[in-house]
Amino acid sequence: MSRTPPVPSRLPDSGTTIFSVMSALAQQHQAVNLGQGFPDFGCDPALLDGVTEAMQQGHNQYPPMPGIPALREAIAAKIAALYGHGYDAQTEITVTAGATQALLTALLAITQPGDEVIVLEPCYDSYVPGIRMANAVPVAVSLDPLSHAPDFDRIAAAITPRTRAIMINTPHNPSGTVWSEADMLRLQQLLDGTDIIVISDEVYEHMVFDGMPHASVSRYPALAARSIVVSSFGKTFHVTGWKVGHVAAPAALMTEFRKIHQFNVFTVNTPMQHGLARYLQDPAPYLGLPAFYQRKRDLFASGLQQTRFRLLPCQGTYFQCVSYADIALPERDLGEAAFCEWLTRDIGVAAIPLSAFYGQPVDRQTIRFCFAKQDATLQQALERLARL
Description:
The chain is of the alpha/beta class. The protein is built from 15 helices and 13 strands. It folds into two domains: about 120 residues, Aspartate Aminotransferase, domain 1 (Alpha-Beta Complex); about 240 residues, Aspartate Aminotransferase, domain 2 (3-Layer(aba) Sandwich). The strands form three sheets. A seven-stranded mixed beta sheet has the order 2-8-7-6-5-3-4, with helices on both faces. Helix 5 links the parallel strand 3 and strand 4. Helix 2 packs across helix 11, helix 3 runs parallel beside helix 11 and helix 4 crosses helix 5. It starts with 17 loop residues before the first helix and ends with a helix.
């Protein structure tokens, strides 16, 4: 009798992500999907034209492993202009197949089995599985439960001789909070004299609101010297399905990053790289992004204020977290995941439970909406949420 051999799971506690589950439920019930973080509007036609032109010009074969020179040079120029740090385009910039691939590649590049990696919870759901796939050990440190600000006393207490890295994220998914210059200087001071590497997830770098600057680790020389900085063209230019990101790091760290990158991806879609390189010559699209998304945040927040949800601060990203503690529930003690399922099924709006971003069970009666949607989509969702 034929049989499939058993395979011990590398991720025995992982199943289908909550994002896929909620998107499928939204489709099943024809709900407005404010769960998964992607826009429902198109990108600039000029970007599409650049990619089309690149394909027509024959840029359809393998590009150089770290990315085409023109794109790496454009990325380095952008970082230098915005944050004042000069990365060498030849040795310190790599184009990746999205940010998630970049994060996993960074972990595989810098950790050895048994190394500890600090993560600040709640956190993007790929961090801990990536650490485990690298045979390293995740060490969870909670952000402040109300403000989601980093608690540096807790971070300091979590550092041991086995700590190899810390993963930070600003602007922060899922909470929408933003690190300040004081936070970065405190982190810089905390890590001084250690060999700890920072993996800085900055995919929402151009979505910081109310006139606040983005505190990239690249702004701080002592942090930049020990950091792998990850960003995403998909988030910045409304093309999440393209899965194109980039990494900046000192040459010594980038050498190790590329050793892994060449064997798990090798390189990234050629015509899209050419299109992005041309599109980056004009800074207006990304410089205008804060105002673009702040308007959507304000529109959505204004509508939510007419509901029984309690808004949490949103300083950046395209996510708005809310508390439903003041809403009378159909069942007593309905947990976050069950509340999101009920909201999708009975009210017709999909959201993501904040508990999905923690390793251990947490229930703070808080959920996350994505407002990277057309105004009509947001208005439709708000009309349904007003029924609560």
